[in-house]
Design brief:
The chain is of the alpha+beta class and 139 residues long. It has 3 helices and 5 strands. Strand 2 and strand 3 form a beta hairpin. The chain is globular and about 35 Å long. The N terminus is likely disordered.
Length: 139
């Protein structure tokens, strides 16, 4: 995980921003918005399922280990789909190797396995945790 690979934002490709509620409905809301936003990007069903699972894990991880996630962003530029969750915490995300007996603590390991890259970026008031997926343009 590195912060140096954070995708650069292009002025012409404004991200979709979703304000997250402060309750357990946030992951479902984020998934619903991602599904709607990506409908024209040419994702096959397997890619879409990977992106939706990563969406859930990023938002859930921000609630459980960050400090109050406030927004979720989706950006598509040049065949790359970027998911970002902003929370007010300053602590970096921690990738853990869970034991087989643990029922939890697999969120970031799943994001790492599903995405092309992931990481975090500190910003005023908190941080973004992001994941990048390579997808082809819709035919």
């Amino acid at each position: 995980m590195t912060t140096s690979k954070m995708p650069q934002r292009m002025a012409a490709a404004a991200p979709l921003t979703v304000l997250l509620p402060s309750d357990v409905t946030a992951p479902a809301l984020a998934r619903r918005e991602v599904r709607a936003a990506t409908s024209a990007f040419g994702l096959d069903e397997a890619q879409l399922e990977d992106v939706l699972l990563a969406t859930s894990e990023l938002v859930t991880n921000a609630f459980e280990h960050g400090e109050r996630p406030q927004r979720f962003e989706v950006e598509y530029t040049g065949g790359r789909l970027t998911l970002r969750v902003y929370d007010t915490g300053r602590m970096p995300p921690e990738l853990r190797a869970p034991s087989p007996a643990e029922a939890r603590s697999r969120g970031l390991a799943l994001v790492q396995a599903l995405s092309e890259d992931w990481g975090f970026e500190r910003c005023p008031g908190g941080k973004y945790v992001w994941a990048i997926f390579r997808v082809s343009d819709a035919a």
